[in-house]
């Protein structure tokens, strides 16, 4: 079982509105686990929660904006990963015709 924190504790610690947290869950930006009717956020998702909270409260970005920014940042990371993979391949090749993409 992964390390986790209850949603009630998250709301208290991060001082966020439960409606905002429920919107993040409904939009599938966060994926809580439920056990004995208690919802938990896994620790691995806390950096995402912190980022979304900062965007919303500090930068006043609404939920649709958060969804778009999150999607674009994920796409950028995917492109970086693909770029690194292709750079490794091109660095190992002496002839581009040998490439197996």
TrEMBL record:
It comes from the Bacteria. This is Chaperone modulator CbpM. It comes from Epilithonimonas ginsengisoli.
């Amino acid at each position: 079982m992964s390390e986790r924190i209850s949603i009630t504790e998250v709301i208290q610690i991060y001082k966020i509105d439960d409606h905002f947290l429920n919107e993040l869950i409904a939009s599938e930006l966060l994926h809580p686990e439920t056990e004995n009717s208690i919802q938990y956020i896994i620790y691995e998702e806390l950096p995402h929660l912190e980022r979304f909270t900062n965007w919303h409260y500090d930068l006043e970005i609404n939920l649709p904006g958060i969804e778009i920014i999150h999607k674009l940042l994920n796409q950028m990371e995917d492109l970086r990963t693909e770029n690194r993979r292709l750079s490794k391949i091109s660095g190992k090749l002496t002839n581009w015709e040998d490439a197996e993409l």
